[in-house]
Specification:
The protein folds into four domains: 102-191, Sandwich (Immunoglobulin-like); 197-281, Sandwich (Immunoglobulin-like); 287-372, Macroglobulin (MG2) domain (Immunoglobulin-like, Sandwich); 377-486, Immunoglobulin-like (Sandwich). It is 6% helix and 42% strand. The chain contains one helix and 34 strands. The chain has one helix at residues 19-49, and strands spanning 78-80, 83-85, 92-96, 99-100, 105-111, 118-125, 144-150, 157-162, 171-178, 184-191, 197-200, 204-205, 210-216, 223-228, 237-240, 247-253, 260-268, 274-281, 287-291, 294-296, 300-306, 313-318, 327-330, 337-343, 350-358, 364-372, 377-380, 384-385, 390-396, 403-409, 417-423, 430-437, 444-452, 458-465. Residues 1-24, 40-65 and 133-137 have low confidence and may be disordered.
Length: 488
């Protein structure tokens, strides 16, 4: 038996492992793990910022949304120009742009919320009448939260979100909903749907700007249909190729299409050849001027606008960005209009907002104004008198042509009694109208209240009754009945 001390030595590198190599291998594992983590972090931050998406990292609106049930705003209750609208103070949002591209940014501007409240913004399929619901279970099948903002002073907020890169319906509903409150507002965002050569003199502009178009490579003399951001439907304009199948520098207007990168497409009607040129569409920033900014019911507020797309209709809504417009105004070739207006109804009170939306461009702008209350004044034909005195009334500053009902209180805490009615003229004025006899048992002061039936405004008159020194025999008056023609 061979002793241990004579056992043959095991050569280095075969039966033994060097301790140094074990340590080196561990460092490599740590370095590999750190590198992998760094790549994930870069993928989640830098790549999306560069517009690059990677599997498993998520990108923009492609992330799985959280489905919720959004609330509905209260139904409109006021008749304006034959259209039911919301009253003043209701929450409202507008979108810029209103015609959006998949993956494009949207700014939500809200007002009418409670100061300091947290407002969540949701995106989902439109619930407007006539809009088809989503047929698939895609990311736009149900509402999901896309932004959160805090309402600042006056209850206004601004939030931004990015439209998903894939959608199944052309119209999306944006809902702004305050947490722990019934205050909610909605607005619709429309999604833009999306050999020769075409060249543009400029690659950046807004709808209505003029650029020069040059094309070639088409059939001689054929009609060329020109589209902005699409390739079907009615063309934005038509051109005719020359004998060489080309068109020289021709000034054209930038058409209405989604904000962001788009294309001008030229299609030959005979040859079927197509050409496109990239173009960056800028946002429209419309503006509105009101005159005056404060009116009373029955008075007209006028407005003029600019910065819309040329020759489009501008839809006017009261206190809402969606729903049926109260009127539509056509813009001129420069995207402006003037001289339009609305007569304010009696039901509107206080602060109000008008929202103007381009029917094609979806460019929207809102502006506020105030409905002033009527402040009527009234007096009697005398400041005081004895029981038996016959009183009639003088009134000013009521609403034009409204009926005024007169009630009287002959003692403190007594129930007012209707005693007369009359109608003011077109200037809200009446003179020596109505009749009332001071009862024989009346002492101290009689209080008359003159109430306008359309303006809901009241004027008060105090009539001092002198002491008669004894009983006054005056027959009690019969209860007054308002004639049919003085009911309102």
């Amino acid at each position: 038996m061979q002793s241990l001390k004579h056992r043959p030595a095991i050569p280095r590198g075969k039966g033994r492992r060097k301790r140094g190599k074990v340590k080196l291998s561990g460092k490599r594992v740590l370095l590999a793990g750190a590198a992998a983590l760094l790549m994930v972090l870069v993928g989640r931050s830098l790549l999306p910022a560069l517009g690059i998406s990677a599997p498993g990292l998520g990108h923009g609106g492609d992330e799985t949304p959280t489905e919720v049930e959004t609330k509905a705003p209260p139904p409109p209750t006021i008749d304006l120009n034959g259209v039911m609208v919301q009253g003043g103070g209701s929450p409202m949002i507008t979108l810029n742009p209103g015609l959006v591209r998949l993956g494009g940014g949207v700014t939500v501007q809200g007002s009418g919320f409670d100061q300091g409240s947290v407002v969540d913004v949701y995106l989902g399929p439109s619930s407007q009448p006539g809009q088809k619901p989503a047929k698939s279970a895609g990311p736009d099948a149900k509402p999901h939260m896309v932004a959160t903002a805090k309402a600042k002073k006056w209850g206004v907020f601004t939030a931004n979100f990015t439209m998903p890169n894939k959608m199944t319906v052309p119209v999306q509903e944006v809902t702004a909903q305050a947490r722990g409150s019934d205050k909610v507002a909605k607005a619709d965002a429309s999604v833009a749907q999306g050999a020769g050569q075409a060249t543009l003199s400029s690659v950046v502009g807004k709808p209505g700007d003029t650029v020069n178009l040059t094309v070639k490579g088409f059939s001689p003399g054929e009609q060329l249909n020109v589209y902005w951001g699409r390739i079907n439907g009615d063309p934005n304009l038509t051109l005719k190729a020359d004998e060489g199948g080309a068109v020289g520098k021709t000034p054209i207007r930038v058409g209405v299409t989604a904000v962001g990168t788009t294309s001008l497409v030229v299609v030959g009607k005979t040859s079927g050849a197509a050409a496109s040129a990239p173009f960056q569409v800028l946002r429209l920033y419309p503006s509105i001027k009101l005159a005056p900014y404060a009116v009373k019911a029955t008075q007209k507020i006028t407005f003029s606008g600019s910065g819309f797309a040329p020759s489009e209709r501008v839809l006017v809504r009261l206190n809402a960005a969606g729903g049926q417009p109260v009127m539509a105004i056509a813009t001129d070739d420069a995207g402006t209009f003037k001289g339009a207006g609305l007569i304010m109804p009696f039901q509107l009170k206080g602060a109000q907002s008008l929202v103007f939306t381009g029917e094609q461009s979806r460019a929207a702008v809102s502006t506020g104004f105030t409905i002033l209350p009527f402040t009527p004044q009234a007096r009697t034909n005398a400041y005081g008198g004895l029981p038996g005195t016959m009183v009639n009334f003088y009134a000013t500053q009521f609403a034009p042509n409204e009926a005024v009902h007169v009630t009287v209180r002959t003692a403190k805490g007594a129930t007012p009694q209707l005693v007369a009615a009359f109608r003011v003229d077109a200037k809200g004025t009446a003179r020596a109208v109505g009749q009332y006899t001071i009862p024989g048992n009346t002492e101290d002061t009689v209080v008359f209240e003159l109430h306008g039936q359309r303006s809901d405004a009241t004027a008060t008159v105090n009539f001092k009754v002198d002491k008669s020194g004894g009983p006054v025999d005056i027959p009690p008056a019969k209860p007054y009945v308002v004639p049919k023609d003085l009911e309102n």
